[in-house]
Amino acid sequence: VVITLLALWGVAWAMGVPLATGWILASALALSSTAVVSRELTQSHQLHLRFGQIAVAVLLFQDMASVFFLAILPSLGGQPEQLLPSLLWTLGKATVLLAGLLILGPRLLPRLFTLVARTRTEELFVLAVLVVILAAAALTQLMGLSMALGAFIAGMLLGESHFRHQIEAEIRPFRDVLLGIFFVAVGMLIHLGP
Q: How far apart are CA 9 and CA 2, in angstroms?
């Protein structure tokens, strides 16, 4: 990830792209889609082979790197002379938020999903998952960070909970639709005009 990021950042700089813009482009191109790659490995029955396990390890590292990239993204839009203080402030906020969610999440989420599971209502379970993700995204936006960072952290917490298999089973019918909406939404953010 680091080698690819620095190489692409160097190419962007050599082409005259501003440093902040080059960083954003390089960090986006240094990552690959965990959802797409893991799905392809699963469908081709290669997930449990040695190179499949190595690919998953690389994907997990890229997911962790994306937390860093998402955390510093909002501070890259400011003035160049204020970039370092802005980055340090943003990383500080992200560290406090991440630590808080990683400490509170494993304590609160099992209690919440135990209560929801007792109702034996599938719709309520899916709704609780969506509320947790949206609440984490709103919290990160409230702190001046990316909503995607909050959603990503919530996904990590849900993936580590005792209910991860039930969550996966309930969300599976929506996975392809949500993945399609994600890629369409990202594509709609591209501004090709002058």
A: 10
pLDDT for residue 14 is more than 80: yes
Both tokens of 173, joined, read 């019918």
Backbone angles phi, psi at 98, to 5 degrees: -60, -45
Distance, in Å, from the CA atom of 128 to the CA atom of 172, rounded to the nearest integer, reads 15
pLDDT tens figures, 15-63: 998 877 888 888 888 888 777 787 788 888 887 888 888 888 888 788 7
Distance CA(136)–CA(147), nearest Å, equals 8
23 membership: H or E segment, kind and range: helix 19-29
For residue 149, which of 82, 95, 190 has the smallest C-alpha distance?
Answer: 95
Cα-flanking dihedrals φ and ψ of residue 27, to 5°? -70, -35
Residue appearing with tokens 């989420």: 109
